[in-house]
Amino acid sequence: MSQPQLGPPPTCQSPEHTCGVSVVHEIIERYGGNPEMLIPMMQDIQAAEGYLPREHLRTLGRELGVPLSRIYGVATFYAAFRLQPKGKHTITLCMGTVCYLKGADQISAVIQDEFQVKPGGTSPDRKFTFAPVNCLGACALAPVMVVDGEYFGGLSASSAVDILQKIASSKKPSEAVAKADAKQKTAAQKNGRGSQNP
Amino acid sequence: MTANDPNTRQNPHDLPPTGESAAKGPAAAGKKIAWVREPELGMAGRSYLMLFLQGLRTTLRHLLSRKTTVQSPEQRHVVPDPLIYRGVHRLNRDAQGRVKCVACFLCATACPAHCIDIVPAESPWPDRQKYPQSFTIDELRCIFCGMCEEACPVQAIELTSLYDLSGKSREEMVFDKAKLLSVFDQTKDAEPMTKGTGTFFGLPVSNEGTPGPAEK
Amino acid sequence: MATIYIDNQPYVVKDGQNLLRACLSLGFNLPYFCWHPAMNSVGACRQCAVKQFKDEKDTKGRIVMACMTLAADGTRISIDDPEVRRFRAGVIEFLMVNHPHDCPVCDEGGECHLQDMTVMTGHNYRRFRFRKRTHRNQELGPLVNHEMNRCIACYRCLRFYRDYAGGRDFDVFQWHNYVYFGRQSDGVLENEFSGNLVEVCPTGVFTDKTLKGHYTRKWDLQTAPSICVHCGLGCNTIPGERYGILRRIRNRYHREVNGYFLCDRGRYGYEFVNSPRRIRQPIFRSERSGAAQPVEKQAALEQAAKILGSGERVIGIGSSRASLEANFALRTLVGADRFYRGLAEAECRLLDTAIALLRDGPAPAASMSDAAQSDAVLVLGEDLTNTAPMLAYSVRQSTLQREIGLTKRLHVSWWDDAAIRQALQERRGPLYIATPAATKLDDVATEVYRAAPDDLVRFAQALAHALGAEIPPVSALPRKLAALADVVAEALYLARRPVVVCGTSSGSESLLRAAGNVAWALSAAEHRGQLCLVLPDCNSFGLGLLGGGSLADACRAIQEGKAETVVVLENDLSRHADQAALKLLDEVRHLVALDYLEHATTAAAELVFPAATFAEANGTLVNNEGRAQRSYQVFVPQGKTQASWRWLQEMMVAVGRQAEASWRSFDEITAALAEALPIFAAVKDIAPPEGFRMAGQRVPRQPHRYSGRTAMHAQADVHEPTPLADPDSPLSFSMEGSQRQPPPPLVPRFWAPGWNSMQAITRFQEEVNGPLRGGDSGRRLIEPQPDAAIRYFSDLPAEFEPRPDEWLLVPVDHIFGSEELSALSPGIAQLTPAPYLALSASDAAGANIQEGEKVVLAMDGLHQALPVRFLPSLPRGVAGLPVGLPGMMHVTLPGWAKLSKVTAS
């Protein structure tokens, strides 16, 4: 099973974050600089920036007197916090027991390979954010993934990539989804019980 | 029950640390000793006649059986199964020709004659942390028990079927890494590494890497 | 006392402890991970499960965690119950799901708590067929190696690092199966106790990086009980050697001194022993400035006889880092009145003041354990983390003491660590720190006071006055400060075991005396104030008791023509003497030096003898509380190296003074020392004599699994060498000997059947956290005078006034770099800062100096260009100068200096 990699998040390159320090100060002031309100402050930063830029966390730690390690501990504990900017589409892949047994790890490996994205990370072209989760509660569809709220069940490694490539190239996501859905159904029939090895 | 009760036990370590009392520790509590009496000999046993005849029978059997003596060195002894024979050691090489040893010290530790000495160094290769900078076996001290081979987690040390080990000096019989690797080069064709046949705690061991469970 | 029943057998245990502690104290094998004797219980790992029964009739029972259950009177438990055994094996099996099978290549293999516990529970076959989770490792600096895949998430590292050692750059990340212990990003672990992670971690996540460079398994190390030489605290250590190379240092438990831990300087400072700069052979220079020629031992001794036998005008300069025996041998060689201590005049005065405070006053010296159990601590002028790191650790623990008392009403057991910390939140007991600059303990301090040394004295005297010392009140004290003095006085007075910490590193005698006043005033109240004085070197206290003049006195003797030959023992004089004194010593007619490393003094000497380091010779060292402790030889050094006292004895024989130097063994010289100087009478009794045997056998320095004995020398010589004899101790240089537990001063390693890791310690203690079986080792040489009439000191310097064109330089110590020997170890050297000058930002702005800019420091005729570094906490008009860093000149601090900017040439 692959896992979210822990490591230094990339420094923010987008121009809107260069002035981020003032955002942090404003948020800290909003909560009266109380270190106990760390999580709400981080939520606000994420709401403002879309994720938690490294520089912002550094400023936050310095201003509140909370060690940076502690802030990262909180940020990595809650799946709701993001340390990297989000892609255009979010792939949520179920890694629960049933999906795992039906080859979710192979699907995960192929997605990682195809889009150069690490679990919890975003692809270099900012198209996809890949988030394996522990269970989507849709075991009957196993192996299942959700792309931007849309469920895709009975996947195989190749059908998953097909769907994602369609979504990536399509200007109208729903259209791509419809096409992919039809194809995925036939693939599922062909493979019998979903997918094992591609 | 109070502390003064004779049945109340104190800390077992308060007892004097002799061998006898050590056995009375928590592990041995409640065990009984069974005394075994030496059996008495009957008439036949005391006369030794039967034993004498048994001995003669063995001698006669060997006189009449097939001779196994080999006229060495003109004739060479053929080792029935080289893979289980315990002769001179060799240090195996992996597919890339590097020494397989990972300098874990298990052979040196298992060695009852204390005749293996390893000096580790940080490995120049990415696939392992350490490798043996020097690896020495004093073949004169070795008792060829095969424990080193048994202990090795990566099948790097093996005993070959080379049995006629000789040298002109004692120094010559101290085998260093180069010499042990040369034994491998010499014997690898006749005695391939035990590929896939070994086991590690009941699990099959592959020749490529460290032991692990077989994937179905 | 409570009676508990374990598998239907009654046992008597102490009240109020938990079952795990009770079982381990009784000698049962009960596996555990998250519990640690110094860190108590959190009940996280579920490994120490036992079955508890309501009464005799209850056969069903229920599984409880031993570490979280009170061993109350009448408790009935079973360790052997099949169900609970299966439970424990199951827990290990879960932990093993992700633990790699890399024991043969893991540095922890063979001394791994996880291995021991796995064997103990009987789990031996992996049923989980899937892939293991993997992590990326971090680069944590030159001392600690990180291998996160091996983690079993017991949280011990985090608890130690954050809750106990006060580190802030290490935490747990992520959740569930992926929990990750590390820094927020790669980088050197900032905490000074990070090396303890190696011992705290039950498996191989954190391993010793310096050991990795010359790796040896635990059972292949030759070890002996030793004492750390890198500061004055005298922590007990276990150095390990193989092939003549010192491989690592491990902690040796001592209840009163260092407990379970060591600082990074003590753990990683050992590599100077393997330094290429070691002197291995006697050196002779026919001309003083000429090239060094290695000579044979006999020739060197003959040369020494020629020099020493020429006349009476020989003086000896001792050392605070040499053992008592070596100093005594030199004192015997030159005569008591011609023995000098090898310390600058100021250092000598500080040392004498400190010893006098402990010897003449009513306040007893506080050991580190006393400091840790104190419920109110006052630190005066010492940056403990950098001058006496393990004491800083103890003081940090002390801040919990009073508050733990307050949690009693919450009905929380004292060993329930998580509950206690939850209840306490950020509340900490009284700790007051008065120093010139910020210290690393400030985060747990109740109040801090930053001032120049003179102002610190005024504050301490005001405090002593408030506590009732018969000294005149301090006039013109700022109102805020007077109020602070009252607050501190009240906190100390209300405490049950207050400790006053001071030391010599501030360079102020008045401050030491004022600290004495405070402790004595507390003692006078109810006989309970304790005094903890930090001394710079491992044998400063011993040298202080031995007596003798300072280096300035030695220079005077040379100038007056009373000395034309100087014998220097294990001392780099450039660290203690100024330029003028050094020049004088250089020009003396004959200079003989004994030392282990090349330095300025050995470079100038006519004759140099290779001396043995702490690992190569026995020695007695006296720590800062006056405790004499024995350190044993670990291995026989290469070349002609031998103990300094042996060289000196041989020199005396060579000049025909056999009668005076009749000592041939270590026991004989200690006996001679005890006889010559009654203050050292106890020294000969602190450890068993050479003739001590257990069942007729010596104590082996090598473990019974020592490998390669017949082959390790085979390439040099096929004949197996006979084990070397040790005429100096009951230890042997072989694996043969008694396997029973020796008396505490002789314990060469902690190992017990089934317990290969450091956790075997519980098998060596009388009870968990108690003394080693046989009592605490070492003995205090001086005792306080509880009934003596107290004569308070009335030193009262004037208030500190910043000068317009001068700066008061105060010493700034560094844990890595300020100590001579450890700074030569590559790992420590990497962490040593380059020389600099510390200024507060506002002062620097006033003088128009930028950070990083070079300024020339002029003081006592000394000129040195140093880059400026900002130290925001420094008071106005005060500058900090790091002491002892390689490349720094010796200056007596505090002192006034002029700074001038370097003009671009």
Describe this structure in words.
Chain A has two domains: about 15-75; about 90-190, Glutaredoxin (3-Layer(aba) Sandwich). Chain A has eight helices and four strands, in the order H-H-H-H-E-H-H-E-E-E-H-H. Chain A has helices spanning about 20-30, 40-50, 55-65, 70-75, 95-100, 105-115, 155-170, 175-190, and strands spanning about 90-95, 130-135, 145, 150. In chain A, strands 2-1-3-4 form a four-stranded mixed β-sheet, covered by helices on one side. The longest helix of chain A has 18 residues, at about 175-190. The relative contact order of chain A is 0.12. Chain B has a domain at about 90-205: Alpha-Beta Plaits, CATH 3.30.70.3270. In chain B, about 20% of the residues are buried. Chain C is α/β, with parallel strands linked by helices and about 900 residues long. Among the domains of chain C are: about 1-95, Ubiquitin-like (UB roll) (Roll), CATH 3.10.20.740; about 285-345 and about 550-685, Rossmann fold (3-Layer(aba) Sandwich); about 350-535, Dimethylsulfoxide Reductase, domain 2 (3-Layer(aba) Sandwich); about 805-900, Barwin-like endoglucanases (Beta Barrel). In chain C, the strands form nine sheets. Chain C has a seven-stranded mixed β-sheet with strand order 15-14-25-24-23-16-17. Chain C has a six-stranded mixed β-sheet with strand order 32-34-33-36-31-35. In chain C, strands 2-1-5-3-4 form a five-stranded mixed β-sheet, with helices on both faces. In chain C, helix 21 links the parallel strand 23 (about 565-570) and strand 24 (about 590-595). In chain C, helix 8 (about 295-310) crosses helix 23. Chain C is globular. Chains in contact: A-C, B-C. Chains B and C meet through helix 4, strand 2 and strand 3 of B and strand 2 of C.
